[in-house]
From TrEMBL, chains A, B:
This is LacI family DNA-binding transcriptional regulator. GO terms for molecular function: DNA-binding transcription factor activity; transcription cis-regulatory region binding. It comes from the Bacteria. It holds the Pfam family Peripla_BP_3. CDD domains: HTH_LacI, PBP1_EndR-like. Transmembrane segments: none annotated.
Length: 340, 340
DNA sequence: CTGAAAGCGCTTACAG
DNA sequence: CTGAAAGCGCTTACAG
């Protein structure tokens, strides 16, 4: 890159000290009681020389980079890319920039990303943490770097976080299926210890119990993050062909999309033979032969609240941690239908 | 943030100069001929003190931030978020980090993002440029900062870029429709001067001409980026109800999704009454009642090549500019069917 | 109202 | 083989 004009350059240009220019550029002419005349002169010179401050130098001096590190499982997943968009917008409004990384639900990758971002002195983290990474989050907290968890969270970890009430959202979805006359309700979830997923399973089981429907272990199909397609092809297929259930509840949009492909390939009628409900959203939900009923999380709220919490903590490091519960509502459409 | 241990700290810890530690931490012990013993001592001390270099300080000194600025129209659009994921992965392999921003096809927003990223001294840009922003790109080039354009490009601008052959990709799609017996072929495109879109329209018109099908202006529907939904609802609807065409070609995935909603709401049979083909991909394409035929751009190639070009230029600023044409292939499925 | 100077944490030519 | 020193471009307490 060609030599850029520095603060010193503009100072020299009008024979004045760098300090003056710095004050003026940062709108501190009042505190420093710079004369109006001088302010004008400096502003003109800066514009003339097309001065743009070097934020790296500023960061080094100030110890703050105005950068937020965002770590999600996969930025190409629409759930996360939509949140990323909101975070980016909100951050920009406040003068922050966001760098991002995808962990692939892999603790080691997440740890690498945290290290890389730490090394670049991000002012704060927003993380949808992978399984078994509570120590990583604790380490960030120990360094007194702000972090807010989104989507996922850890029991007993005192940290800012933003997520829905997974238990209730799940329970409501299953209630809807029961209400529509379904008794043989399966669930496709991820095989993970992550609490948000446990809560979704717990909500499912709780409603079965409440409605006196026996929980059948083999109807709670668990797919691993790494081998999701394979697990859907074998484990889920096992209860779809021949069809043993009359309703299926998907714990995420990625599971739903994989499941819907299996369902349509097998020619299963939805909702006739099988009612379905999913978590999250997908463009595909509108176009499935039976528009899919889903639990809608407000991605806008998640992104906004995450940035809000980050900024609050940046301004007041010692305030106590907050958990923001974001709204989730069931968008009822044809796929959960009440006719067998 | 708590005080981190600096290079000086580890130097002091073993009573040695900062220079030595710097050489060792950067693997330059050979060039600086540091004794093996010392190397070991330093490495142990660094590990003990959990030393992590401050990359901001390094950046200031080196004039390089190992950061790539990525600007796309909208990071939440799967087309871009998928490319972003690839870019992120490739960049990470090379020790780069990516900061991103969404321009919303708005020249002013793009300009802001370029300024913000410039101010943060990104080493290079990867941009899917908005309409009428050739000057912005030229300005980056004038500063001798590497930039590679993806997806879109400008006539006559000498710059690295990666995109498909839009003319041929479009022509092939329309040929397929003609081959399947369609004669009244409409197109839904964006109303923009951007060359990639012009090329798509040109391919469409060229095939009509070649096959002696009269081009009808009212069947080339143009939607504005800003009011896409409205334009689809009115302008596209005008040729769908009553149905005046027997095939419809969508210039992007976003247009397709909007158009497909209109089509399904109107109860138009696909491909029976109307054959459709789209550019790009969408999860929805698999689930439309007639799986959608589409022009598949290799997002992996776009992302990879973009990063490759960026790095090449970073290593050799003066090499001449390359345009990489990435493969596009037609994925033929039911929706472009040959039965009326 | 304005300037000189220290210092943020690094790298690297230079001297020894 | 190792250290002292300058300098990257800023900010800000201090002195005048």
């Amino acid at each position: 890159m060609d030599k850029k004009t520095s603060l010193k350059d503009v100072a020299n240009h009008i024979g004045v000290s760098a300090a003056l220019v710095s004050y003026v550029m940062n709108g501190k002419e009042r505190e420093a009681r710079v004369s109006e005349e001088m302010v004008k002169k400096i502003k003109i010179a800066a514009a003339e020389l097309n001065y743009q401050p070097n934020l790296i130098a500023k960061s080094l001096k100030m110890g703050t980079t105005k950068t937020i590190g965002l770590i999600v499982a996969d930025i190409s997943n629409p759930f996360f890319s939509n949140i990323a968009r909101i975070i980016e917008d909100e951050a920009k409004k406040q003068g922050y920039v966001v760098i991002f990384g995808s962990s692939d639900e892999n603790a080691a990758k997440q740890s690498d990303l945290i290290d890389v971002f730490t090394t670049r002195l991000v002012d704060a983290f927003i993380i949808a943490p992978a399984m078994n990474t509570v120590d990583q989050i604790q380490q960030i907290l120990d360094k007194n770097v702000p972090v807010v968890l989104i989507d996922r969270f850890f029991p007993g970890l005192d940290v800012d976080c933003v997520h829905i009430d997974n238990y209730n959202a799940s329970a409501n979805a299953v209630k809807q299926l029961v209400k529509n006359g379904r008794k043989k309700i399966g669930m496709l979830a991820y095989d993970t210890t992550q609490l948000h997923m446990q809560e979704r399973k717990r909500g499912y089981k709780a409603i079965l119990k409440e409605r006196n429907i026996r929980f059948r272990k083999e109807w709670l199909v668990e797919a691993s993050y790494q081998e999701m397609d394979k697990d859907v092809a074998t484990k889920l297929a096992a209860i779809l062909q021949p069809l043993q259930i009359d309703a299926l509840f998907f714990a995420t949009n990625s599971l739903a999309v994989a499941g819907m492909k299996a369902i349509s390939k097998m020619g299963i009628r939805v909702p006739g033979e099988l009612a379905i409900i999913s978590f999250d959203e997908s463009e595909a939900f509108d176009f499935f032969y039976s528009p899919v009923t889903y639990v809608s999380q407000s991605l806008t709220d998640i992104g906004r609240e995450a940035v809000r919490l980050v900024l609050q903590r940046l301004h007041n490091k010692s305030r106590k941690h907050h958990t923001v519960i974001v709204e989730a509502r069931l968008v009822v459409r044809e796929s959960c239908g009440n006719n067998l």
